[in-house]
Amino acid sequence: QWLSDRKKRALQKKDVDIRRRIELIQDFEMPTVSTKIKVSRDGQYIMAVGTYKPRIRCFDTYQLSQKFERCLDSEVVTFEILSDDYSKIVFLQCGRFVEFHSQHGHYYRTRIPKFGRDFSYHYPSCDLYFVGASSEVYRLNLEQGRFLNSLQTDASESNVCDINPVHFLFAMGTAEGKVECWDPRTRNRVGLLDCALSSVTVDTEIDGLPSVSALKFDGALNMAVGTSTGQVLLYDLRSSNPLIVKDHHYGLPIKSIQFQRQLDLIISADSRIIKMWNKDTGKIFTSMEPEYDINDVCLYPNSGMLMTANEAPKMNIYYIPVLGPAPKWCSFLDNLTEELEENPESTVYDDYKFVTRQDLDNLGLAHLIGSSLLRAYMHGFFMDIRLYHKAKMMANPFAYEEYRREKIRQKIEETRAQRVQLKKLPKVNKELALKLIEEEGEEQQVTRKRKQKNLPSLLKDDRFKVMFENPDFQVDEQSEEFRLLNPLVSKISEKRKRKLKILEELEAQEREEEEEPEGKASDAESSESSDDEKGWVEEVRKQRKLLRQEEKVKRQERFKEDQQTLLKPQFFEIKEGEEFRSFQDSAKKQKLMKKTLGDRLKLEEKLGTLNVCDTTVGSKQATFKLKKSEQQKKQQEAEKRHRQERRTLRRSASHLKSKRGRGRLFH
């Protein structure tokens, strides 16, 4: 894309792939967008309509070039070639106009009452059937040159229509997801199919009501219907249920349906993908996803050539040899495809290397970003392969040696794979892995006899994978927990082995049909279990004695270290609001914090700060008295003193008043 035309012409001399590119038809394109493409019945002319400006282009396949181009007044919705060549063409345009063209050019123009969306030509009666934004189907007779009585349908709008080429049955697809079939001879409706209901299956998810967006007949009995939600339904006209429902899984309207009779294929296309699938089984044959959105698909008759009209100037041409031979005007394609299969050539990007920003940093070429040596593409850059090799040799001169060592290592591993494979133990927790392998083998033997399913192994489970890879999960055999539990684990494994031996002996005795008195096996098991318990208790006692001895040795060592160490004075900071009395109070607090909750509650209950009592319901009720700090106590004492002083002042004042009153009365 970023090569200029001059460089492309220069590359044609060097690049084999560019030299072998074939432009079948010269200037096979539109100025902006192509909307519809069709082939004449004689196969000589290919006609396409597009924009902008609205125009039609006719290409002559015998000359492999454009024959003529005609511009139109408005955009073309669809068109139909009435004759075997290009001499009679009908266009349905956006502004409700119907335009007729003959061999020399524009012939006649008329208008229909409502906006049209599709039309079909009925050859026996020379009638044109127009469907669109109306419940009526308009009929225009080309022999008489006038409109006939329209067909009144039950639909509010119609999207597509088609006429069967064998018995000339007229079918139209409505916006409500139904297909109405009419007989042109009696002008009566003869059938109704509800495609919207049939398109909803278990595997499909549909948002909204599906409307019919494509319709195509195949022979006298088959009809394919495409919906606006991306489903294709194949019907037999004798049944109201579809033979098969194919979903494109894109949720886009089906735009075109074609039948390929040689391989019994249906070619359905939406705006994103073209799918080819078997009409009997629904199995996908192949699919194509062009770069641009698809507007129309045309299959060249009796060949493997496919043409598409896209949302781009270039109209694509595909040749698939499996579908059929090449057309006679380009028969050389068959020889070229055989040569390409025999001699595969290099791709276009062989002279360039795609690198990411991280690769450029590793090579030390990050400063070239923005220069002409790097071409930005997607999430990286294209650079010349020669520059890449030079930079790589300078950045890593020993790359060849590393490559050689890697190849030698791969060869050695291949030869090792041919030898007898041994069970490899992991690097971490080898003893645990060995134990699990042994237990797994024993369990497999038991499950085979009992015909049960094997349980998954811990070694193969991804959830416990880290336990055998990370050294942090290594079992510490010197820890107190492991040493106390280890006798139990070993005894359990011995007990399991003994039980397995007993089961094997019992099975052998049953085969020999020898009876044994009841209760004997249980007595043996009880005696064995008692022996196991005694042995386990003895081993646990031994381990505890060893642990006590080790603790004594550690204490003696700590005592010696404490005697050797010199004590230095330490300073402690007192928190605000607290009064320091002695170190004994802090020691008491630490001892109190180390005690359990029950002991602390009993102590507080003795001191009177806690009161616990039973309720009538049966639960416990506890009332607490919050402890006051020294600062709060001082504040309370000051408040008491202040209250007492105020009381004394009030009493003295009242006493003086009473004395004065008595003196006045006496006076």
UniProtKB/TrEMBL annotation:
Sorted UniProt keywords: Coiled coil, Nucleus, Repeat, WD repeat
Primary subcellular site in the record, as a coarse category: nucleus
Ranges annotated as biased composition (Basic and acidic residues): 627-642
Domain NUC153: residue ranges: 461-487
Record keyword Coiled coil present: yes
Top-level taxon of origin: Eukaryota
Entry-linked Pfam families: Beta-prop_NOL10_N, NOL10_2nd, NUC153
Disordered as annotated region, ranges: 508-536, 624-667
Residue ranges of domain Nucleolar protein 10-like N-terminal in the record: 1-343
GO cellular component, one term: small-subunit processome
Compositional bias (Acidic residues): 508-517
Bias (Basic residues): 643-667
Places the protein is found: Nucleus, Nucleolus
GO biological process: maturation of SSU-rRNA from tricistronic rRNA transcript (SSU-rRNA, 5.8S rRNA, LSU-rRNA)
PANTHER family attached to this UniProt entry: NUCLEOLAR PROTEIN 10 (PTHR14927)
The protein, known as: Nucleolar protein 10
Top-level taxonomy: Eukaryota, Metazoa, Chordata, Craniata, Vertebrata
